[in-house]
Amino acid sequence: MNQLSKILVLSLAVVLCACQTRELNTKVSHATGWNYFDQKTTNFEAYADIDAGIPTGMVPIEGGTFTIGERDEFVTAPRNNFTRTLTVSSFYMDKYEITNLDWNEYVHWLGVVFGATAPELVQAALPDTTVWREEMAYNEPYLGYYFRHPAYSFYPVVGVSWSQAMTYCQWRSDRVNELKLIQCGAIEYPPFDELLPTDDEAYKEEFEENLYPGYEMFAYEVPDPETPDNTITMYRPSYEWVRDKFVFNTEKYLYHDDYYPEYGRHPRKNSYGEDRKVNTADGILVVGYRLPTEAEWEFAAYAPVAGEDGLTIEGKIYPWSGYHPRDLSKQNLGNMQANFVRGRGDMMGVSKSLNDAFVITAPVDAFAPNDFGLYNMAGNVNEWVMDVYRETSYQETSEYNSFRGNIYSQPKRDEDGKLSIDSLGRIDIVYKEDDDKRDWKDGDFDSRIMTDYPLDTLYREEDIEYKVDPTDILAPRLTKNARVYKGGSWRDRIYWLSPSSRRFLDQDKSSCTIGFRCAMSMLGDQHINTK
């Protein structure tokens, strides 16, 4: 053995000796000494440190302590976000804002599944394209083309309310978990062919009597292609079957005994070879996509990453460094850093010398990302966050994972104690009044004042009497449905591009300047680069 080989062997031995083997394991119980996965015993299955990987479309964000709230003083600005120090747990965040293409995929799925039996569910998911209308602007082409046309596929979806965004997050969670279960062999692909119409009356009888007793196939007439004067009777599965049996929902799969197994799906095998469902202990299912909290969103936008000295720079006003809307680095000198309005009427610069180059929204991958690798955390579109808006939220806040808007819900059950399914085929939820914490320690006077007085004030116009609420001006209502949005948009001045700025809109309303991106909680280790 030559000298170099001896040195390498010695170095390897030193490294191996330095490595510490973890005493805790998933083979033998640290508490009782009994073996795990042992068919001679109870065959307890023990898992640990299962790395499911980074969720589809997301970036891992390592949490930490930072200063949330206003970074600069504007005399005329709303005083609704004073600074305080918070800690945010590590989480995942979408790299890009949700695009028109993403939303079209969602609407298409709803159309395939519910289009024939519950078209109102498809209609409820469509963005409100009339948000583009302005009384003194010609934006009519956007109504018909912005959402559907391929030219805007990678532009952010707008006209989507907070409520619609939350429903999309649930749908996305279910589709991702459904695919994970398919890929691990726990279930099979959904039988989309069973949604197609058929004229086979024998199959209708088999469906109703043997395959799915208690569910019907509904009949409808269509013109006979060979003799148009005649009709053919066609059959489709009923809405109730689609809702209860076809639609995969994560909670329904885990907890609804009547739902599983269905239509040829087969469960996983335990170490005895017996059928069982995948459960949360297997580490296969994602926690679930959701909107980010306001604290998470602001942390992700500022990206307070520590330098070599372990310290972060807390003085940034925008997601990029400094006060300048243009990039000052040598390689990108002069490039705009976001899509917003500069001065009066300057939406994209002058012809042959465009600056941000977009009169309305821009593609979600336009402009440079921030230090976390997230695109368009300032400008382009504002983004919904989960929080209920209160002007004084900063006065009552948790020091970690701050959030206003908790509603502690539980699965809803029918009279027989069985879990109820909602209109979209998911486990329905219910909560008690005391479990609604949206107004917890609410110090905002406007949101607490009682304004539901009888409308007994009459106003007459052209012999028509109208009832008027005299409190509308004196006591504007700030309800539990007022949700925060942040980030600034293509139609905003640079003040609103500061991640600390905050505004609100009712959760059922939408705008051509508001979109969203999803977040997901991270389980286990807070370090994102240890595995």
Order of strands across the biggest sheet?
17-16-11-18
Summing up helix and strand content along with how strands pair, one would put the structural category as alpha+beta
SS elements, strand count: 19
CATH architectural designation of the largest domain? Alpha-Beta Complex
State the name of the first-level CATH class of the largest domain. Alpha Beta
Spatial gap, N to C terminus? 35 Å
What order do the helices and strands follow? HEEEEHHHHHEEHHEEHEEEEEHEEHEEEE
Average pLDDT, all residues: 83
- CATH topology name of the largest domain, in short, is paralog of FGE (formylglycine-generating enzyme)
Strand content: 5-15%
Please tell me about this protein's structure.
The chain is α+β, with helices and mostly antiparallel strands. The protein has 2 domains: 23-52, no CATH class; 62-190 and 248-439 and 480-531, paralog of FGE (formylglycine-generating enzyme) (Alpha-Beta Complex), CATH 3.90.1580.10. The chain has 11 helices and 19 strands. It has helices at 3-18, 100-114, 119-125, 140-145, 162-183, 201-211, 239-246, 250-255, 294-302, 445-448, 471-474; strands at residues 58-61, 64-68, 84-88, 91-94, 217-223, 231-237, 268-269, 275-276, 349-350, 353-354, 382-388, 410-411, 429-430, 457-461, 464-468, 482-486, 503-506, 514-515, 519-521. The strands form 8 sheets. A 4-stranded mixed sheet has the order 17-16-11-18. α2 (100-114) runs antiparallel to α3.
